[in-house]
UniProtKB/TrEMBL annotation:
The keyword Membrane applies. It comes from Streptomyces tropicalis. This is Amino acid permease. PROSITE patterns: AMINO_ACID_PERMEASE_1. It is a multi-pass membrane protein.
Amino acid sequence: MPSSTTSTTVGTPPQADDAALSHGLKQRHLSMIALGGVIGAGLFVGSGAGIAAAGPSIVVAYAVSGLLVMLVMRMLGEMSAAYPSSGSFSAHAERALGPWAGFTAGWSFWVLLCTAVGLEGIGAAKIVTGWLPGTPEWAWVALFMVVFCATNLAAVKNFGEFEFWFAALKVGAITLFLVLGVLAIAGVLPGTPSPGASHLTHFLPHGGEGLVVGLLASVFAYGGLETVTIAAAESENPVQGVARAVRTAMWRIGLFYVGSMAVIVTLVPWDSKEVVEKGPYVATLDHLGIPGAGQLMNVVVLVALLSAMNANIYGSSRIAFSLVQRGQGPRVLARVSGGAPRVAVLVSCVVGFVCVLLSYWRPDDVFPWLLNMIGAVILVVWIFIAVSQLRLRRRTERETPEKLVVRMWAFPWLTWVALAGMVTIFALMAREADTRVQLYSTGGMTLALAAVGYAWQRRRARS
């Protein structure tokens, strides 16, 4: 059997070979991918529901979930700097826990990314059809899919350039928003009196339940941090690249998320209908009297959706490529041409477009089931990251300590704190009716994949 399908046991590095992939990503690409990957439509639009539920305490919710995300990113950065791989956390889970873990984490994340590609395409198409009424949504989704499929079929540097400029626009927009907001709060923005703390008096308007809803909304808004560690394997200098990207991105993420939430709830009443209907950023800019704010933010949201779509096509294809390189999927997905796994790119795009078609063909049964199934995948992935880091850190310190370019803070205590936080979020999801179905659906998919992965591992061990 070829080396890519050699039996892998716990303690033996999986035989993933990224040498066939091109290494065209530069440090500037990685830095902006790290920043832009978590600044998506979930922040610009989805945060409105969290504000409506939690009121001003949404700032606490984003701060708490932001700290958890920083811990996860640090753990993932430690492992990815020591063992760069396009499989990222999936390869780390296999190295730490065995092939079944890499199989489960990898394919569940692949399903999440492919479905997200379709959802982001639908969201982007809705914005464009709002500008051009009468045009079919599916045609716009198909156009976006073709463009980004072609981008990812070409050299990886094309993906890097798209993401660099997409991320630069998103970062620029949110930075300008923060500057305008701080000036308005300070009372020095012309024509806008400072509200002081008048909108912050009812800090917990719906009590602890509202804070829980806001916390759950904020956790899933942070999804996307994994892309930079996947992309690092195709950079010019993977070890230094991922280390620098992780270090510079973490505090900026906290500033953008927590800072913008603080600006919004200070300037706009939390119970304003516009916060949910228009989105919190549009509502705030309208409150400040910025002309054309709605259309401006629609452009930013469109860019955020297209950026996420591009990144998820890239991430899904590389995860699939890595899994197959390790003997955990159809070998055809590992074919590389021109430095890119083109078959994996095409398959990921097709699956994403099928999800779009399901939203039109089966909107009442199959499509909602699919959405519920991926609802808590990101938390499952984070748990695999934390458990893998607990196992690999000791092993790396003992065998190759020079690889610890990035180190998890206060190990192992903060890793255990992060794990406790994830378990707490699972418990909170089980308490809420809206998220309970997602939790159970994701749990069912995860268990099914784990069973298949374990059976495959046993069969390979016997052979």
